[in-house]
Amino acid sequence: MEFRHLGRSGLKVSEISYGNWLTHGSQVEEEAAKQCVQAALDEGVTTFDTADVYAGTKAEEVLGRALKGVRRESLEIFTKVYWPTGPGQNDRGLSRKHITESIHGSLRRLQTDYVDLYQAHRFDYETPLEETLKTFDDLVRQGKVLYVGVSEWSADQIAQALKIADEMGFDRIVSSQPQYSMLWRVIEAEVVPLCEREGIGQIVWSPIAQGVLTGKYLPGQQPPEGSRATDPSGSGMIARFMNDDVLSRVQELKPIAAGLGLSMAQLAVAWVLQNPNVSSAIIGASRPEQVRDNVKAAGVKLDAEVLKRIDDVLGSVVERDPGKTASPAKRP
Ligand SMILES: NC(=O)c1ccc[n+]([C@@H]2O[C@H](COP(=O)([O-])OP(=O)(O)OC[C@H]3O[C@@H](n4cnc5c(N)ncnc54)[C@H](OP(=O)(O)O)[C@@H]3O)[C@@H](O)[C@H]2O)c1
User: Where is the NADP-dependent oxidoreductase domain (predicted)?
Assistant: First the structure.
């Protein structure tokens, strides 16, 4: 495994991290979840990403159990807050009340005294930014949270937060967690340039576009049995890539991967890691073999000619609109 700094912070993270959205506590049984975590640890992954909302809070519990007994200092555990975790009007968003209650729940479920990174899962238009940032800062001072980050915030929103943090002396955001893959490049125009200037690292999600970039979904055919596209909780988000234009172009990436001696998943993960502003690629997996396959992308270098061939194959199906980085106008 290779390691990178999380933005300009002193924290080092494994350049491939393991995330448990849709899998732990939901799509896969506990034993498979534990095997995936063990495979990640065996391959040198030290960074694990989850969220309070995943599987209605069960994902954090599963991860907490799977990591039990591992030396805490050898791990970087990341979680998030914003999406609803209960039925109440305050069980969501980034108010002082919800953040404070949510971190306590996360620490209990993860069986740890602190998380290494606490992320605002989306921007909350209903809470003053000062209130959110002050609460995060308090958690840092209490030692419950070591670093603070955001997810799917636009460049403007990140810039506003940095300004307030600098004026008020609050802890600064060190990371941004956006969707990023060969197919989804919406951060490149605005978020990445700002973050490069400000020392913020990207921890990117769905680097293989939820499985699409493995090439296992064939145009004009039903998705393979047991894959995410057939899972009721996962099929909604993957739907944007499940059309014949995208799926046929992805098939054309196969000779490029084969020519480099890489699997398709490794090519996809290696692709996001070529961006120097990326601190880590968060991979998901429903089985341990996938973890073992995908982590081999660590340290792989792709030259300019390969990157151009990928761009030529994917052409107009690549999404680049920075406006696609968005948070709900009202709390869900
Ligand atoms: N901040 C956010 O808003 C946000 C949103 C989404 C995700 N995330 C984070 O990012 C993490 C990763 O997201 P993701 O799971 O969508 O990432 P991903 O790595 O793009 O997709 C993972 C899925 O692809 C399939 N897959 C993986 N490797 C494969 C292989 N070698 N061969 C065939 N299929 C393979 C598996 O699904 P099947 O086997 O079921 O097909 C696996 O669960 C999440 O766990 C979470 O921590 C964050």
Answer: 15-313
Q: What is the pTM of this model?
A: 0.96
Name the DSSP class of 47.
E
Instruction: Say how many C-beta atoms besides its own lie within 10 A of residue 48's C-beta.
Output: 25
For 201-213, write each residue's pLDDT tens digit: 999 999 999 999 9
Give me ligand 1 centre to Cα 295, in Å.
Answer: 13
User: DSSP secondary-structure letter at 216?
Assistant: -
Atom of ligand 1 nearest to the CA of 208: 20
Catalytic residues: 54
Place of tokens 């039990």: 68
CB 184 within 8 A of CB 159: no
What's the CA-to-centroid distance between 171 and ligand 1, angstroms?
30
Tokens 């959205």 belong to 21
Model pLDDT, residue 236: 83
Q: CA–CA separation, 212 vs 121, rounded Å?
A: 24
Decide: 327 in ligand 1 pocket, CB within 6 A. Answer: no
CA 209 – ligand 1 centroid, Å: 7
Judged against a pLDDT cut of 90, whether residue 141 lies above it is answered with yes
